[in-house]
Amino acid sequence: MTDIIWGTVTKVTTNNKFEINVTHRKDENTNTYDDNEIVIFTDIDIMSLPADPNLRTIEQIEDAIKGKFIKCEVIARCDDKTLNCKVFHSGAGGY
Amino acid sequence: MVKQWAPIYLNKNQKFEFTDELSNGKIPAIVLKKAFSLKTCKKITQKILNSNYITDGPGIDKKIGESLNSYLNQKETYFKKTELTDTKLENYFGTIDDPRIVMQKLLSIIFQKKISVAKENNLNYSKGVFRVHSSGTFNIHRDCARFEASNYKVSNFPLQFSATLHLQKAECGGELILYKKFWQQEDEKYRFPHFGYSKEVVTNTEFLKIKPDVGDIIIINPLHYHTISEIKGMSDRVSTGFFFAPSDEHALVCWS
Question: Is the Cβ–Cβ distance between A85 and A41 less than 8 Å?
């Protein structure tokens, strides 16, 4: 089973890397996750972003996810401690 | 003008002049009394509860009609499903007019503005959602298309109000609990993965409870945190509603 964490994006550093304040972790997760993690994403399922990763800018990524609550499916923890994840929009704060 | 944080009660066809106070939170809510007759509400409720169109969505187990929060990342699907569902619902109530359309007309009178369903690329937004709340508790939430539905044109409106018609009371509970606190972006850290926010977000916050009668319409600025008190008993709470916003000085648009 894939580990999943949720939280708000605090900083976008490059067009495929951001910092996240982790507030929720799936109960069945195999590994542990700090309250603050750095994520490198391989896939991001957010409608406003261009499908081609080469066309994405930091500004577009910031507009799409900075300050927002997202879900990260963890693929691996890299040697430099960053998390390799698939990133998704998560749930709703209201109707 | 307003000292106590309390709703304003209006009669059907009465006009409301204090939109600024409703938007800035000085007035917590407008309650439009007896907007629909008990007989009409009962007929609509029967149609809703016996419907085959009931689905679920974030924060609600039983609903009819589409809402943006189910399609935040699937805009094309939202508009396709909206067209299908609203076409079905147009004639679903038989001799009774679609209550969502009647509500639009009432809002037009209250706010003295034209009202229409929001459109994007010539496609209609959903006219509103019927919600059935059964026994249980419900997460605190706020509604904010500007932040959450940023891919949709309605996110460009700086203001957002909601209107809810109460069609059937729960046997026990089901009051609207409205907190004297607006959502702020920093509050996202209190989000739950699926729907709404942790209670911590309203710790020590003043709140009021509104127990609507059947046929009443409650209008709020849904950026205030709000929820429904725990429902107990056999009878479901049934309501319908939508969001609306001033699109210019003379017009309102609505969606859900």
Answer: yes
